[in-house]
Amino acid sequence: GLLSRLQTSAPTIRTLSSSSKSFSQNIPSCLWKLGRLNHVAIAVPDLEKAQSLYKDVLGAQVSETVALPEHGVYTIFVELGNTKLELLHPLGEKSPIASFLQKNKAGGMHHICIEVDDIKAAMTELKKKKIRILSEEPKIGAHGKPVIFLHPKDCHGVLVELEQA
């Protein structure tokens, strides 16, 4: 009947036995380590409305608005306990967030930020691995620490920010 057909057509799942090689044996050691997710950044067309949603409706702890002219953005951080959301709004016409919002009128996820223990070593190694970095040198980010961005086409469509931990 149906049960026997489902049992015979179910995919076989292989498990790694203790005699199998460990995954870590196949991964070359790095001079730097990837750390925790620092934040997920969301571009928003209306910063006050977005801030109100997280603060007044959802009850989150929300920072004051900070202007970051070097990055062309206004930023607000929403504390979530285990990580943060970064609300981004354009600061000036040449802001990368302005062009993002032209294509995505309602806003949306802009990038993820992951901490690294050695940003310079990460840059050197990533360049060797043909991962494009969107600046020659790290810039100081919203947390006062060096940051770089990796090209989304090299990261499966995701803009990845690395921040010195």
TrEMBL record:
Describe the reaction catalysed, as an equation. (R)-methylmalonyl-CoA = (S)-methylmalonyl-CoA
Q: What is its EC number?
A: 5.1.99.1
Which InterPro entries is this protein grouped with? Glyas_Bleomycin-R_OHBP_Dase, MeMalonyl-CoA_epimerase, MMCE/EMCE_epimerase, VOC_core
SUPFAM superfamilies per UniProt: Glyoxalase/Bleomycin resistance protein/Dihydroxybiphenyl dioxygenase (SSF54593)
Instruction: Write down the superkingdom of origin.
Output: Eukaryota
- Annotated GO biological process: L-methylmalonyl-CoA metabolic process
Query: Is Isomerase among this UniProt entry's keywords?
Result: yes
Which NCBIfam families does the entry mention? Answer: metmalonyl_epim
- Hey, which family's this protein in? Belongs to the methylmalonyl-CoA epimerase family.
Biological function: Methylmalonyl-CoA epimerase involved in propionyl-CoA metabolism.
Q: What is this protein called?
A: Methylmalonyl-CoA epimerase, mitochondrial
Q: List the taxonomic lineage.
A: Eukaryota, Metazoa, Chordata, Craniata, Vertebrata
